[in-house]
What we know:
The chain is of the alpha+beta class.
Amino acid sequence: MAKKPHYEELEQRIGELEQETIELKRTAAVLRQSEERYRTVLDSIEEAYFEVDLAGNFTFFNDSLCRMLGYSREELLGKNNREYMPPESSREILALFSQLYRTGKPVKKVVYEIIGKDGLRHFHELSASLMKDATGKPIGFRGISHDITDLKKAWDALRESEAKYRSILEGIEEGYYETDLAGNFTFFNDPMLKVGGYSSDEFMQTNFRSYSDEETIEKVHMVFNSVYVTGRSVRAFEWKIRRKDGSEGYIEASVSLMRNSTDEPIGFRGLVRDVTQRKAMDERLRESEERYRNIFNNSTDFVYVLDLKGNFTDVNQAAERVTGYKRDELLKMNFRDYSSPSAHQEILDAFHQIFDTGKPLQDFRLEVTVKDGIKKYFETSVGPLRKGGNIVGFQGSSRDITRSVEAERALRRSEAKYRMILESIEDGYYEVDLKGRFVFFNDALCSIYRYSRNELLGMSIGDLTDPETSRKGYEVFHAVFATGNPSKGFEWKGLQKDGSEIHLAASVSLVRDGDGQPIGFRGLVRDITESRRLQSQLQQARKTEAIATLAGGIAHQFNNALTPIIGNVGLLEMDYRQNENLMGCLKDMKSASRRMADLTRQLLAYARGGKYNATVMSLRDVILETLPLIEHTLNQGVRLEADLPEDVMAIDADSNQMQMVVSAVIANANEAMEGSGCIRISVRNIDPDPAFRKGCPGLGPGPHVCLCVADNGRGMDEETKEKIFDPFFTTHFIGRGLGMASVYGIVANHGGTIVVDSEVGKGTTVRIYLPAVISREIPQEIGQAVMGATVHLPRGDATILVIEDEADVMDLIRTALERLGYRVLEAATGGSAIEIARTFEAWIDLALLDIKLPDMTGAQVYPLIMDARPKLKVVVCSGYSIEGPAQEILKAGAEGFIQKPFSISKLAEKLNEVLQGKRPQETC
């Protein structure tokens, strides 16, 4: 139990309490005074003071906070920060207070955003600390906050300005730098780093001396010192630097003085441009200009510069050599002073075009007159001369091409001559590219292929022939390309525009360009179609001639054999005319002999010896007398039509042979008929021109008579047509002997030509052309057929030398002559005949001379016997025709000719005519 205090103790305690009360009152007064001062101070400052509990609710604040937020003291007391801050600032303050609560350490200058009562946003800067009670327990937070909205805007503007400033500095190509007065770099942009290849850390706080050699350091120091002393900026001074990689570069720098707010120099700033490439380009430009000047002065061409009026403002050294004028003279001249008047307008037009378009003109030709008055030709190129983008004149060059022009003219003359030659030759000339396409040719080639020039240009060789020939041609062209050796005279089968086939002889050689590279082929083409046909005809003629020679020999021997038969028949007729049985037999023998004689006549006609008795005659009359004899031989149903005008010209021919020709051709046409048909025979006068003769080989100039026999029979193919003149050729089982072969021989011997046109299923047309006779008259009568006339047997009284090697013929002639009253001398050889002529003592009236003897020919015997007996009359006797070897003797002077086989009556008639001094027509 507690001890009760004594009175004195209570009184003492009361006294203490009273004293404490007095002290408390005094302390409270002091505290009130202090709080009053504190309140006065807090309310008088612009910064806001506040105290909040741990939840962030206001517990105390000064008037400044009310003014800042726009709230009254009553509205603001107890308000939480979330009520006047945007969410992001509220979260930041919460995080700040949490940090204060954990650490107890005050925070300073925290910027946050508040929203005033008017809804406007403000920025405040806060310093805060933790509040504790007397026991040290945290009870809230206090802080000072001041409005930095205007400052914040200024900072933001400054940052934007700095960002813009930095963006500009980093965006420009030039480097920007700032240094202190010692030349140490204090600020720079990224392009400044690129100049030297350094990083920002490497460049910062370095000195310009670190990147320059001694000579450059001295030069830069002088520039910076001048700027410091004068305060005037320096622009575009060159500065050689050393890059990080050790290479040298060049910069073009500017420098100006930097001052502080008190206008005191504190450093330098400026711009830097890397001019290393430009300096290199300047160097190259200088070298280029030097080269240009060297080229300008050393060029062999006349190089010039003109103003817009055409006055020379600069020329090179070659101008003096080209024009003959000195440089000083040219610089006082206008282009008109040295160019010909005809060229003035052309040059002016060129200058106007260049000025209007701004484009140069290349290689146009001018005629000029140089100082000595000689005309020359220049090839000129000229372009615009610009200054500041404007055309202020012209510049160009001229080359003296006088020799080239003269050579070109000579070449044109040569080409004209060359073309004239190419166009005048009949051969086709061609040039093709490597693909065989025509790139050049003459008109003759167009004529050969029958294409126009436009049609042929661009066509290929393959378009003008068949695939097989094209393949062979490719092989030839390939060989020429591979070896380079030309090919001459190879044959080529071509196709004309209408599809006609032609034969060509071609040559080909390689065409090369200036570098020797193959670019195509050239050559000549000759149409040998006609030549091939003529060659075929020549081969046929040679074959025919060979057979004709054989036929002539056979006919000669056959006639020799027939002569004693026919002669002895004649002798028997003379001796046994009253014996009817014998005369009947002799008649058959005579008929058979006559047919054999006809056969030999055909053989001789084929052998070019059938022109027995040539007279001026009418072919129309021959046809009129022949048709009645052959009409009855035509097949049933075959009709014969004749078109024989009376004005047909005469021909020089043997009528018997012409009858044979007409008969053989009509017989050949008749055999071609199958069933009914028509044979049309006609004659016409023609006077063929050169073009007609070209299509009818062998036909000579001058008027001709054309005998035409046309049928509508089965016709012939090419193979058959080529053989119709072969002896004994026939398409029938029973042939007609020599047939058309005889016709060929007779016509050829009369100087004529035969043309046969035939097509299978469309018939055949035979045209025979015989030379016409103009000056001589036509006899009224045509001679009788061989052995057809009955003649009187004249007798004689003369001595006849018979020169004959055939014993049978000799016996017949001797017997016949003796029957006719003649005296006969016999010679079996030429030598014995000459001997008799020289040694026989009596008169010899006539010699009957065979042309073929064992030791020599009749032509060799004739002059020798005539030397022995100049007045001797000679009758040539031969189994060959008169156009054979006998013609030579007749031309030498022999009086007559008689063809074996002959009858006694013909022999008697011939001898009588010659001995009576007449010049009878040769007979057989």
